[in-house]
Specification:
Number of domains: 3
Protein name: beta-N-acetylhexosaminidase
Family: Belongs to the glycosyl hydrolase 20 family.
Radius of gyration: 28 Å
Pfam families: Glyco_hydro_20, Glyco_hydro_20b
Largest sheet: 9 strands, parallel
Strand content: 5-15%
Oligomer: single chain
InterPro entries: Beta_hexosaminidase_sua/sub, GH, Glyco_hydro_20_cat, Hex-like_dom2, HEX_bac_N
Helix content: 40-55%
Enzyme class: hydrolase
Length: about 700
C-alpha cells in the first residue's frame, strides 16, 4: 500500500498558522490552493483595525477583480477604502516584461510586497490579475479586528491551460441558479476556467420538448445568464449533450423512439436518417446559448451499439469502425457551428488503430476513475494519433453516501500527473450522480484537489492538499476540518478492509433482515464500531471547529456532516439489527425458566418499544431524510427530490410496521409466556453466539 494512503487510516493534527500580527509563517505554512509555483519571504501585517485599500488602474476587468476581492473583505468584517490601511495594488505588465517573468504569461501573475504596507498584484492579462486576486483572498486570515494579511513574494502560472469540471445534471440533481452562481464563483476562486454541464434530456430544446420535464430542464435564458455570469469569472461554459449513448430519457418517448438502436433504448442508431439531423438541431440550439469555442458530444458507454439495427454492420465492419465513423459524421454535421468537439475516449480507446481516422481538430477526453499507478496506455492512443487530449478524473461521489476521497485523490493525482507528463493539455474533473442522490456540496474536497493538480506542475501531493484544505476552503485555523475529511476517508477504508469496497448507497438502503442484508452484515458488523467512531469523530471535529471560529462555506460543512451521519447510520443499522436477533435468541433461551421472565421482557422491550432498536432504525431514516431534503433544496430544484424522499419514507415505514408488529409479539409473550420462532416474527438468526 502506498504511503499516501496511510492518511486514510491515521489521523494526524494539522498545524495551521496562527492569525496574529506576530506570526511570521513560511511559504509552506500558507496552505494555498493551488500551491503557487514560486513563493518566498513571507511576512504578515494586521488589517483588522485599519482595513485594506484596493487600488486598480480603472480597467473594467481589474475593477471587477477588485470588487470581487472587496466583497471577501466585507464578508470577513474588514473595512475597505481607508487611506490609513494597507494597500493592494493591481498593475499591468507589458507583454515583453511578462515573457521575461513567466513561462506561460496567459494566466500568470506576480505578488510582491510594496515599500509601504501592502502588496502589488501584477500580470499581463485580465485572467492573471483575476487569479492573483484569488490568491490574495487566501492570504487574508481571520475576521474583523483579528484579521491579518500575509505578504509573500509569489510568481505563479498554470501547468495545464484547460482546467475544468464536468457536472452531471441528468441523473437526479438539477442545480438552481443561485447555487450555480456560487459554484462558478468557487471554481474560479481555485483557478478552474471551464465548467461543463452534462445534458441527456435536461436542456429545454425546442426540437425535443417532450423529453424536457417541466421544472427539470435548464432553459435557454438560464443558460445565457450563466454564460454571462461565468465570463466575468474567466470561466468558459462547455455544454455537453450526449449525442450517441445515454439517451434513454429521450428515446423512451414514442416521438423520438424511432431514432434508437433498440426499442426505447439508450443509443442512437447511426444509420437512421433522423439521427444526424437531430444531433444538428440540439447543437445548433446550444450554439445560440453557449458561444464558447467548444462543445462536448459525449459518446461514451454506447453499450447497445450492435445489438439492434446496426447488428449486421457491426458484425461486418467491427464495433470500433462503426462507432468512430459515426463520430466523424457528427463532426461533419456540426461544422456549421464552428466549435471544436470534445468526446469521451472510452470506446475509441479500445480501437487504437482506428483513432487516427478521426478529424484532427477533435479533442479526446480520456476518462478513468480508479486510483491505479499509471495511465500511459489510456492516453497514448490519442496522443500518438495527433489528437489534443484531456484527462477526466473523478471525485468518486457516485453510488456512495459520501465521496470516497481515498480513491478520488489517488485517481486525480496519478491521472493528472501522467497527463501533464505525456502532453495532455487539459483536465476535466467529473461529478456523476448515477444514484440520483448526489449533493454537490459533498464534493468540494475532490473538486479542489483537481483544481490544484491541474494548476500545479507534476505530481501533486495528497498530504499537502489535505493539510491545506481546511484553511484554504473554510478558513479553519485549527486543522480540524481537514481531520474530519480524513476520518471519513478512514471510514471508507474500514469498509474496504472488511471486503465491502466503501460506503455504498446499497448498505444505507438494504434491509439488514433480508438475505442480502445478512450477507452484508457478516462482513460489516465486526467493523461497525470502528466505522461509526470514524464518522462520529468527523461530526465532533466539525462541531469543535465551528464553535471556535466563523468558517467559510458553511453549506459544505453541513454536507460533510450529513455524509458522516449517513455513514454512522450504516454501522448503527447493522449493529441494531444484530442486537435484535441476539436479544430474541437470548429471550427464547430464557423463556422456559420463569425466574428469567423479567430478562425476557426486557429483551423484548429493547427490541421494540419507545426506545427500541426497531424505532431507532425508523428514526435514523426519518431524521436523516429531513436533513437530506433540506440540503437538496438548498442547492437544487425540486425536480427528482420526490424519488429520493420516497426511499426515505418507504424505509422509515418498513420499520414503523415492524415496530407496530412487535407489539403483538410482546402481547403474545405476556399472555402465554411463549415465543414463536424468529422466522415467524421477521427476525434472522444471530450472526454470533448469543449471551448465556
Amino acid at each position: 500500500m502506498r504511503i499516501l494512503r496511510l492518511a486514510a487510516f491515521c489521523i494526524f493534527p494539522l498545524g495551521i498558522i496562527a492569525t496574529s500580527a506576530q506570526s511570521t509563517p513560511t511559504c509552506a505554512d500558507l496552505h494555498l490552493l493551488p500551491a503557487p509555483r514560486e513563493c518566498t519571504a513571507v511576512k504578515s501585517i494586521p488589517i483588522g483595525t485599519a482595513g485594506l485599500r484596493i487600488v486598480s488602474d480603472r480597467n473594467s476587468e481589474d475593477e471587477f477583480a477588485a470588487k470581487d476581492l472587496e466583497q471577501t473583505l466585507k464578508d470577513r468584517g474588514i473595512g475597505t477604502g481607508k487611506e490609513s490601511g494597507a494597500t493592494i495594488r493591481f498593475e499591468r505588465e507589458s507583454a515583453a516584461r511578462a515573457k521575461d517573468l513567466f513561462e506561460k504569461p496567459e494566466e500568470a501573475y506576480k505578488i510582491e510586497p510594496t515599500s509601504a504596507r501592502g502588496l502589488i498584484v501584477s500580470a499581463e492579462t485580465d485572467a492573471g490579475i483575476f487569479y492573483g486576486a484569488q490568491t490574495v483572498k487566501q492570504l487574508i486570515r481571520g475576521i474583523g479586528k483579528d484579521a491579518i494579511l500575509l505578504i509573500p513574494n509569489i510568481r505563479d502560472w498554470p501547468a495545464m491551460p484547460h482546467r475544468g469540471l464536468s457536472d452531471d445534471w441528468s441523473r437526479g440533481p438539477l442545480p438552481n441558479m443561485d447555487f450555480l452562481k456560487r459554484e462558478i464563483r468557487t471554481l474560479a476562486a481555485y483557478k478552474l476556467n471551464i465548467f461543463s454541464p452534462y445534458f441527456e434530456h435536461t436542456f429545454a430544446y425546442a426540437s425535443t420538448p417532450v423529453a424536457a420535464f417541466p421544472g427539470g430542464a435548464m432553459t435557454p435564458d438560464e443558460g445565457r445568464e450563466l454564460v454571462a455570469y461565468a465570463a466575468k469569472y474567466h470561466i468558459i461554459i462547455i455544454p455537453e449533450q450526449e449525442a450517441f449513448g445515454h439517451l434513454h430519457h429521450v428515446l423512451k418517448f414514442e416521438r423520438y423512439s424511432t431514432l434508437g438502436e433498440t426499442p426505447h433504448g439508450a443509443v442512437l442508431a447511426p444509420g437512421d436518417a433522423g439521427s444526424l439531423p437531430q444531433i444538428g438541431e440540439w447543437f445548433g440550439e446550444l450554439a445560440k446559448v453557449f458561444p464558447g469555442p467548444y462543445a462536448h458530444i459525449g459518446a461514451d458507454e454506447t453499450d447497445q451499439l450492435g445489438l439492434g439495427r446496426t447488428r449486421d454492420e457491426v458484425a461486418q465492419k467491427g464495433l470500433g469502425a462503426v462507432y468512430l465513423n459515426f463520430l466523424s459524421q457528427i463532426h461533419k454535421q456540426l461544422e456549421p457551428n464552428h466549435k471544436r468537439l470534445l468526446f469521451w475516449g472510452d470506446i475509441a480507446e479500445n480501437s487504437p488503430e482506428l483513432v487516427g481516422t478521426l478529424p484532427k481538430d477533435m479533442i479526446a477526453v480520456s476518462w478513468h476513475y480508479d486510483a491505479k499507478p499509471d495511465f500511459t496506455k489510456n492516453l497514448e492512443p490519442f496522443l500518438k494519433s495527433g489528437l489534443e487530449t484531456w484527462v477526466a478524473s473523478g471525485v468518486n461521489n457516485w453510488n456512495r453516501v459520501y465521496p470516497n476521497n481515498n480513491e478520488a485523490l489517488g485517481n486525480i493525482r496519478a491521472f493528472v500527473r501522467d497527463g501533464q507528463k505525456l502532453g495532455a493539455t487539459g483536465m476535466l474533473n467529473t461529478v456523476w450522480n448515477d444514484d440520483g442522490e448526489g449533493l454537490f456540496d459533498e464534493n468540494w474536497f475532490g473538486v479542489l484537489f483537481g483544481a490544484a493538480a491541474a494548476w500545479q506542475p507534476g505530481e501533486s501531493s495528497e498530504a499537502s492538499f489535505i493539510a491545506s484544505y481546511g484553511q484554504a476552503f473554510h478558513d479553519d485555523p485549527s486543522g480540524k476540518i481537514s481531520q474530519a475529511q480524513q476520518e471519513l476517508m478512514a471510514a471508507h477504508a474500514t469498509l474496504k478492509t472488511a471486503g465491502l469496497e466503501d460506503a455504498q448507497d446499497f448498505y444505507f438502503w438494504v434491509d439488514p433482515f433480508s438475505p442480502e442484508g445478512q450477507q452484508v452484515a457478516m462482513k460489516l458488523v465486526p467493523v461497525a464500531s470502528e466505522l461509526r467512531l470514524h464518522a462520529e469523530n468527523a461530526i465532533t471535529l466539525l462541531a469543535q471547529a465551528r464553535a471556535a471560529a466563523k468558517l467559510d462555506n458553511p453549506e459544505a460543512l453541513d454536507a460533510i456532516e450529513l455524509g458522516a451521519r449517513r455513514i454512522d447510520f450504516i454501522g448503527f443499522k447493522f449493529t441494531a439489527a444484530q442486537e435484535c436477533a441476539s436479544l430474541y435468541a437470548k429471550a427464547q433461551t430464557l423463556a422456559g425458566d420463569n425466574s428469567k421472565w423479567g430478562e425476557v421482557s426486557e429483551a423484548l422491550y429493547t427490541i421494540g418499544s419507545n426506545n427500541g432498536r426497531l424505532e431507532d432504525i425508523r428514526d435514523g431514516y426519518s431524521q436523516i431524510g429531513q436533513l437530506f431534503h433540506d440540503a437538496w433544496l438548498l442547492d437544487n430544484r425540486p425536480y427528482w427530490l420526490a424519488n429520493n424522499m420516497a426511499r426515505y419514507d418507504r424505509s422509515a415505514q418498513l420499520w414503523v410496521g415492524r415496530g407496530n408488529a412487535w407489539k403483538n409479539v410482546i402481547e403474545h409473550w405476556r399472555g402465554t409466556h411463549t415465543l414463536p420462532p424468529a422466522s415467524e416474527v421477521g427476525l434472522p438468526a444471530p450472526l454470533a453466539p448469543t449471551e448465556k
